[in-house]
Amino acid sequence: SIFFRLMAEPHFPMSEDIHLLSHKPPVCGLKLLGILAAVGTTVAFGLATISQAFRAESAQQLHAQFVVDQSSQVAVPRALQRPPFNSKQSDVVSSSKASHTVQRGLQLSTLVASGTALPAHDWEITGNFTQASYTAWGLMLFAIAAGFVVWSGFQASKKPKPASAMAMCAVVSDRSASPELAASSAGVQQQAGLRARQLHVEQVPQSTNVAAEYLGVSLPEYVSSHTYAVAVIGAGPAGISVAWNLAKKGVSVVVIDPALEKDWPNNYGVWTDEWEQLGFPEETLGKIWSSTVVQYAENDRTQLPRGYARVDRLTTKTHLMTEAVKAGVHFCKDGVSSIEEGIGNNNSMVCLSGDIKVAVKVPVVAAGHYSKLVKYHSPGAKVINNKGEYMTENWKELVDEKKGSNPWGWKYAQGGAPGYQIAYGIEAETDGPHGYPVDEMVLMDWSGEHLEGDIDEAECNKVPTFLYVMPTDETHIFLEETSLVGRPSVTIGECERRLEVRLKHRGIKIKKIHEVERCVIPMGGPLPILGERTVAYGASNNLVHPATGYMVNRAIGNAESLAAAIQASLDNGLSLNDVSQKAWNAVWPQEALRIRDFQVFGMEVLLNMNLDQSRAFFKSFFSDPEAKEWRQYLAMDLSSRECLEFALGLFVNCSPAVKLRFMYDGVTRDGVTVVRSLLGL
Ligand SMILES: Cc1cc2nc3c(=O)[nH]c(=O)nc-3n(C[C@H](O)[C@H](O)[C@H](O)COP(=O)(O)OP(=O)(O)OC[C@H]3O[C@@H](n4cnc5c(N)ncnc54)[C@H](O)[C@@H]3O)c2cc1C
């Protein structure tokens, strides 16, 4: 058991302690002992097994089963007439016509003499204790032992083998390009007690991954022997932004992602005024619309005097990557399988494929929603499905993300389950002009004139979807049928069907589809457990707006404050636990948590609205197109007091049906708690 743990976990604490005492790298100490013990035991078992096979002279110890075909006349092979196969015990003799049992003491030769024929090709011996099987077992054990020896030799050959721990420490000091590590290693050399963890870093094999290129940007390869201050896991918009901001502040950082050189898969829409605040080059926006429209019926709409844009994913990622490289970020093209969190003030180990581990002070996970690398709050009580049965608390498995469906039929989880935005979108070329004005973008088209004939009108009214439209030119357009939020109440397939019906009604014919977007965005739901050593950011930290599904602008924009908190805490020499705590606080200060509760309540209200209520709600939401409050609400940029004022204004303005909805959800969906939290009570 010790042997296997040592092989599997080079940082198994016992080896570390012994290593500290002996001043020897673990491979020379207990590990070697483990290997010898395992090989010795296996060889001994092999020898014992084979010798037992040869000692088994007596046929009584052995079984043999013969399949006999009475129709063919072939002599019994000579070998079968000798012990142990010359059976004296009860053997089963079977043929296609009959099955006989040969009584104890009956010689096989008698069987042949009696006219029972054994065709050479048609007999088999299946006993567990035959000489042949004993020998096979023995040889197999020998092979396993040989395998151990070859494998451990191979593993050892991949690792540096300094004569002593002192020499090892010198290697760390010489090779390390990290001033921090070099300094600490030099100091350690003066001491009799060596720091095992630094030696472990050196023992980690160099990565076999090749540094990726992204559109001509050469990404500097990480150095596995460095102790990075921060490892950012995930190179989505959130991850690269944090890494870039950290590196700008002089923090050593590595970004780890298996898809470094690939484009981001999602299509991002943003408000132009917010994007401009990021200071990114103009080319990062692919197409800009000067105004935005919310449509309630064919002739009923609100025009918002606010520009909207589609992010050019390629240019934006290239921009962020280029800036990150310039600032000194290192990259590793690999997936992270787990994180061994450091205890006390020890570093954490980020585990890559092939047993490679990277030592870091602060791991920051930006690996998308509900990452397995982050610990999330469970609701306390399990989710209850339609039949009242209990089910798993694994948030990632609540929906089928390929279909956007809810296979469990669950509705509500105590403590707050996520809602899901589901959509089916196409980037398409139309056969003739599509008819949408090319200078305005349709944020939401709730019109329902197409809801007749081919479609279940009642269902569409009960579980509404809207159309999101980004016309590029007269014949090129991005169209997305969207369920704003549900659990999930509409599948991606249903969105696709509704889009077809809508386009047919409008007389839009699709000539060619260039790209399809199948969208599942978790919104709201449980937050990570704040204060854990592993920090989360972006969708992994549930930064997605609970009532709209937007995040990209906010994640890029707020990355600076997270980076500043980490840098300041490291510079001030805080313990690593405290550094992580400060990082969490930077993302979720108390006020932000209160605002989020308010937004989550908004989501709960929205996911119960039918088509008419949705129209009425958004009519009052956008009733003053010039107002700053709805902009701030969408940006999660309201204070507690402003949230309450906004909610009150909305309530007063909206239709009686929506008022009822608010009141009902206020009682059943913790609305009172939210108000108390906003009031600071
Ligand atoms: C289809 C869709 C459309 C959206 N549209 C918009 C929009 O229009 N506007 C908006 O503001 N928001 C939008 N969002 C919401 C949000 O902005 C996006 O989800 C955004 O991509 C989240 O960014 P992120 O960097 O946190 O994570 P992601 O973009 O999901 O990136 C995660 C990265 O982590 C990597 N990764 C995952 N696991 C590991 C691992 N174990 N080890 C190493 N790397 C790993 C992945 O390869 C990936 O590169 C959309 C979301 C979706 C799903």
Automatic annotation (TrEMBL):
InterPro entries registered for this protein in UniProt: FAD/NAD-bd_sf (IPR036188)
Claim: Signal is one of the keywords in the record: no
Membrane keyword on record: yes
Segments passing through the bilayer: 30-50, 134-154
UniProt keywords, alphabetically: Membrane, Transmembrane, Transmembrane helix
Classification via Pfam families: Lycopene_cycl
Protein name: Lycopene beta-cyclase
